[in-house]
């Protein structure tokens, strides 16, 4: 069996998960907790990839400062586990930027950038947005209602729009769907054909969003291009910050557009790689993406999309996805070993490691001294 086929049939886990979220965006765990969990799960290399943010890395330094204070106060605490994590885990710098392609919302993962420059680029990208999402949705829904002669109480939509615009609360998608679905005459608009060719009804908000709202083939599609930075601008921003751009979880866009038909063009916009290994990707789709990676001579990545919470009924957990040790994923290990590791790069982390080593030695010595003292005391009592 040749090497190429061996990798396909027997993927070797390199213990890397470079798609994880923290409280730097919509994750439920702190950055420190995310790293400790990953280390306890046997991960060698992870990345923090918060949405439109690099706050997770700033937050980690704050978390570490707090943890160090606790360790210093509690003189009985053995810092070995935390010290081992800081010394051995490799953490790549990452972010997941929300953008659009042909009017469909998609996401691009950025890796190994300069944090300060990426912060600046994220702020710059915000200035390129032409319209707020709720404004585009409201106008799009009003147009659909008028053009399709939909049975609809427009005051429901108007009130939802007023509330979010004036009070910053709620949204317009839920109210639109609920009013639309409440009229039997509109049910035909909510039909869709699944991957097996069966006709079904989008009878939930999630299905409405995936099968219609963001599906270019649907009569209920709303173009969201103006609500996000452009695909090309987003890739360029990552590159200007010194990073690499990867298309995130392409399989999640299959409900919204024939993504297989667009992959080549998306790569031509400047992508450095594709997220091939992901919980929702079937074996066949992974093979399709890997074929595109090889065809274009770019890189492959993989991760669990861990938020430390249930997401759409699925628990995306760190370490759930096996990233095979193949030439296309070799860059993960190489980058982690070549000085692009956040923990090795951070002055604050390296200073904490020095302190923890000293504390460990002092507490080990204190434990040994107590043991010797107890041993001597036992000898004294025996000799009496």
Would you kindly provide a brief summary of this structure?
It is built from 15 helices and eleven strands. The chain is of the alpha/beta class and 384 residues long. It has a seven-stranded mixed β-sheet with strand order 1-2-3-4-7-8-9. A two-stranded antiparallel ribbon has the order 5-6.
Describe the structure.
The radius of gyration is 26 Å and the shape is globular. Mean pLDDT is about 90; it is low at about 1-10. It is built from 15 helices and eleven strands. The protein has about 375 residues and is α/β, with parallel strands linked by helices. Helix 3 (about 55-75) packs parallel to helix 15. The strands form three sheets. A seven-stranded mixed β-sheet has the order 1-2-3-4-7-8-9. Strands 5-6 form a two-stranded antiparallel sheet. A two-stranded antiparallel sheet has the order 10-11. The longest helix has about 35 residues, at about 345-384. It starts with a helix and ends with a helix.
